[in-house]
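User: I'm putting together a teaching handout on how sequence relates to shape, and I'd like one worked example. Could you take DUF1491 family protein from Chelatococcus albus, show the sequence you're using, and then write out its predicted structure as C-alpha cells right after it?

Assistant: Happy to. First the sequence, then the C-alpha cells directly below it.
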Amino acid sequence: MRLRTDIWVSAYLRRCAVGGAYAVLRRRGAAEAGTVFVKVDRLDGTAALYGPAPQSFYEERAEERRFVAVDLGAEATPLAAEERLRREISFDPDVWVVEVEDRVGRHFLEVAAD
C-alpha cells in the first residue's frame, strides 16, 4: 500500500530542509493519491522538473514513489517548467507541486533510470 500523498509531501519537504535546500509546497492536490511534480530551480536561470515514473519503472516495490525527469525541451528554464506544470494541472487538477531551490540542483528523489 502506498503512503498517502499529503504525508509523503510533508516528509519530502522535511527531507529537503534537512539536506539544506529550500522547498515549498506551491499547490496542494488530492490528499490520498494526488500526482506529485517537483520543480527544481537552480537559481541560475535553469530548472528541472520531475514527475511520476510510468508504472513500467516499478518492480516489486510498487508502494515507493519514483520519479523521472520531465523533458523541458532545449531550454530548461523555470518558465519552461511552469508552462509544463500549467499543462499538467489543466489535465489533472489534483496535482501537487513542490518547488525546490538549490544551486546544486539536488532533488532528493528516487529517480527511475531510463
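A couple of points you could highlight for students: The longest strand covers residues 22-27. The beta strands are 22-27, 36-41, 47-52, 67-69, 96-101.
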